Write a sequence for this structure.
């Protein structure tokens, strides 16, 4: 796939081109080879080994499985995002997917201006009849890794490093805190925010500060900033917990697990619906029960973590799915 500078220029010249249409939620079967999907990534773009890379994996898998084509753009600034969304719509793309909550206001405006366009957004709810909102129960997955941290800490103090103080990141934090408390209410949780998703230096600084305050396990929900947490873990000899994608390989043996947020699954499924002629606007939630959040397979730490810890995690996971363990969202 290619970065769509040519596409976007063409889009500006195709203002009159008709957008893909649907009526009253009823779709017609279309040839997958003729379906085009446009993806607007979040700040940081590809190579973040996290959120954007997971989204790319999902749309690439859809292209491999269904034969659709896709193009993408990696904005340098939030102010560009709405223009990129509009360019894809005006160029007649069948589906435009906006990755990340930073695109919410832009996509809402595009949805109202182009009511016949099919649109999707990850990590935000846009209440328009032509938008599929793909959201995650980050608090459930974070509960699992919080429980793991509480069972594995030797100092009685663990940490959380967030990117920006926004609702979706607060959801990671509160789920993590609930998981820790579920296991042991005496374990202390340190919380710091970097104010940025792309500052590894700041992430490292905050992680070292938490280590100096006795934290021996630190969970990040900070995008590229979290790379600094991993650097600190290796230098200062503590465990980290990754996020979004499987980041365990970035510091083997130092990352206990990663809280998987299956953006790839959500993106794949919305394209799959489109191919089947069943594009579904509205809210699509992905939690533990739906396989939308969870942990990795502990490739590098399975020999470090005791068997009884894995058994307890399995019990907790089953309790969440059965509704026996109530994990409260920050949004509530």
């Amino acid at each position: 796939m290619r970065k769509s500078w040519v596409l976007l220029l063409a889009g500006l010249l195709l203002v009159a081109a008709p957008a893909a249409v649907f009526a009253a939620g009823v779709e017609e079967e279309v040839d997958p080879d003729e379906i085009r999907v446009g993806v607007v990534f979040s700040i940081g773009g590809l190579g973040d080994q996290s959120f954007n890379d997971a989204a790319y994996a999902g749309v690439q898998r859809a292209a491999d499985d269904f034969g659709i084509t896709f193009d993408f753009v990696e904005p340098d600034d939030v102010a560009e995002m709405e223009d990129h969304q509009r360019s894809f719509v005006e160029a007649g793309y069948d589906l435009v997917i906006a990755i990340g909550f930073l695109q919410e206001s832009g996509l809402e405006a595009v949805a109202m201006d182009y009511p016949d366009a099919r649109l999707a957004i990850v990590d935000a709810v846009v209440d328009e009849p032509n938008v599929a909102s793909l959201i995650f129960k980050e608090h459930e997955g974070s509960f699992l890794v919080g429980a793991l941290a509480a069972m594995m800490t030797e100092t009685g103090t663990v940490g959380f490093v967030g990117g920006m103080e926004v609702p979706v990141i607060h959801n990671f934090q509160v789920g993590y805190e609930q998981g820790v408390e579920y296991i042991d209410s005496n374990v202390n949780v340190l919380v710091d925010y970097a104010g940025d998703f792309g500052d590894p230096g700041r992430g490292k600084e905050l992680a070292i500060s938490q280590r100096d305050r006795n934290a021996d396990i630190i969970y990040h929900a900070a995008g590229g900033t979290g790379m600094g947490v991993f650097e600190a873990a290796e230098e200062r000899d503590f465990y980290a917990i990754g996020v979004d994608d499987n980041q365990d390989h970035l510091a083997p043996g130092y990352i206990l697990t990663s809280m998987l947020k299956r953006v790839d699954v959500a993106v794949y499924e919305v394209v799959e619906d489109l191919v089947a002629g069943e594009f579904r606007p509205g809210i699509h939630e992905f939690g533990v029960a739906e396989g939308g959040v969870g942990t990795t397979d502990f490739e590098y730490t399975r020999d470090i973590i005791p068997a009884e810890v894995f058994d307890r995690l399995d019990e907790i996971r089953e309790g969440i799915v059965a509704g026996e363990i109530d994990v409260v969202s920050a949004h509530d």
